Amino acid sequence: MTNDAAGWLDSAAIDPAVHALRPDYRALLLTAEGLRPGPSDELSERLLADAEQAARERFGDRPVEEHPHLAAWREAFRAFGAKPQRTRPSAEALLRRAPAGLPRVDRLTDIYNAISVAHVIPLGGEDLDHYVGAARLVRAEGDETFETTAGGEPVVEHPSPGEVVWRDEAGVTCRRWNWRQCTRTRLTHATTRAMFVLDALGPMDDTALKAAGDQLMEALTDASPGVTLASRLVGAAA
């Protein structure tokens, strides 16, 4: 359990091996304490509907993967051996679902999914109370544990050697940079303290990254009046 959100932000790090792979990578990390979790509601529904409409207007019938930011993410996935047509960057996976309707999961997940789609940026959230120690973005050795499910049953997987993963002291929290989160730290209806990761590559400049972070903070404040927020930019432009 991570008790000090400000200290947790200060301790987060990106390994030099990841910088070498993509020198243009930046992560905007945000912590939120005093959240009000629960099922999808009117506020999260409005955000998702607005994001769906924005995606329709932005892309029309054009392939979403041609967007410069998503194209850069596909290149980043290929650089560590992933096949983006099989394991897509999270923002691309969501945008592909937007025409038929984005998933409705719970109010906190819905909020960050809406911001991800609206700003064409990979964005994930984790429960800080289930995080163990510092967040580190590394290239995996291959023996790290990743807790997930298969066929509705809990299983433990291992990342491929060289795969880019977020991890803490207990194991991998997100595989393939932003592809899939583990079950241990996922947001639930009991989450009141969370961290969010906004992933940017070169085509998204710092102004656009900040705009996405600002909208996420605004939405979290609307959803949970009195929430305490903090953020830190980590990476090339930090």
TrEMBL record:
Ranges for domain B3/B4 tRNA-binding: 71-225
Which Pfam families does UniProt cross-reference here?
Answer: B3_4 (PF03483)
Q: Which SMART domains match?
A: B3_4 (SM00873)
Q: Which PANTHER family match?
A: CYTOPLASMIC PROTEIN, PTHR39209
Query: What protein name does the entry list?
Result: B3/4 domain-containing protein
User: Which organism does this record belong to?
Assistant: Streptomyces mordarskii
